[in-house]
Amino acid sequence: MIRAVVFDVGETLIDETRIWTRWADRLGVPRFAFMGVIGGMAATGRPLTDAFGMVRPGLDWAVEEADWAAEEPDSLRNNFDGDDLYPDVRGALTELRRRGLTVIIAGNQPPQAKAALERMGLPVDAIYTSAEWGLEKPDPAFFLKVAEVAGFSAGEICYVGDRVDNDVLPVHEAGMMPVLIRRGPWGYLSAETPEAAWYGTVVNSLDELPGLLSPA
């Protein structure tokens, strides 16, 4: 029996379109081109940060991010807010809690993401980020921490994310139930891999989760 549902953030709860279009504008690259390169990183299993060096050879992503923050300290820059939530998020989280499941957010995110998520007033029991834990998926220790904060055994936890490498295979290895959401570059590509069906359950919307995890 599943008693807790834990959610990834980017392209699971948050539509990252605005983030990447702002980055494209910042780098002086056509938006379509930058999105395409990001898709290429997803398709070839390369780190997302490689996309920056590909469109701007020699670019130091961390330095560019720091410069941007110094120039525009009050702008959203590469961060997100409530307008970036996918439309099915609030309803699905609300229904999961109504059915008695513990709902937690825990994903690979920088320090500022926690405050951004907390400001949204989402119907969840807790919010955590990799930055505060000093652990990142797919490290098995990340999922041990997930079980610790959830307060349930691994077999009673479902983890929902958009990537096979970060959210299906390591979740399965941890003894939890993996669910892959089919959206975002990684989600659409991952859903086509054999591992997605072998080790996880693929859904097209978060609205499918209550019926899947806690049938009425």
Features:
12 helices; 216 residues; alpha/beta; 12% strand; single chain; 6 strands
Helices, strands, pairings?
Elements: E1 4-7, H1 17-27, H2 31-44, H3 50-55, H4 61-71, H5 89-98, E2 102-107, H6 111-119, E3 126-129, H7 130-133, H8 140-150, E4 157-161, H9 164-173, E5 177-181, H10 184-191, H11 194-199, E6 201-203, H12 209-213
Parallel strand pairs: 1-2, 1-4, 2-3, 4-5, 5-6
Structure notes:
The structure is a single chain. The chain has a six-stranded parallel beta sheet, with helices on both faces. It has helices at residues 17-27, 31-44, 50-55, 61-71, 89-98, 111-119, 130-133, 140-150, 164-173, 184-191, 194-199, 209-213; strands spanning 4-7, 102-107, 126-129, 157-161, 177-181, 201-203. The chain is an alpha/beta fold. It contains twelve helices and six strands. The longest helix is centred in the first third of the chain and has 14 residues, at 31-44. The two termini are 14 Å apart. Keywords: Hydrolase. This is HAD family hydrolase. One of its GO terms (molecular function) is hydrolase activity. InterPro entries: HAD-like_sf (IPR036412), HAD-SF_hydro_IA (IPR006439), HAD_sf (IPR023214), S-2-haloacid_dehalogenase (IPR051540).
- The helix/strand order is EHHHHHEHEHHEHEHHEH
**Helical amount:** 40-55%
Note poorly predicted spans. none
End-to-end separation in angstroms reads 14 Å
What is the radius of gyration computed over CA atoms, rounded to a whole number of angstroms?
A: 17 Å
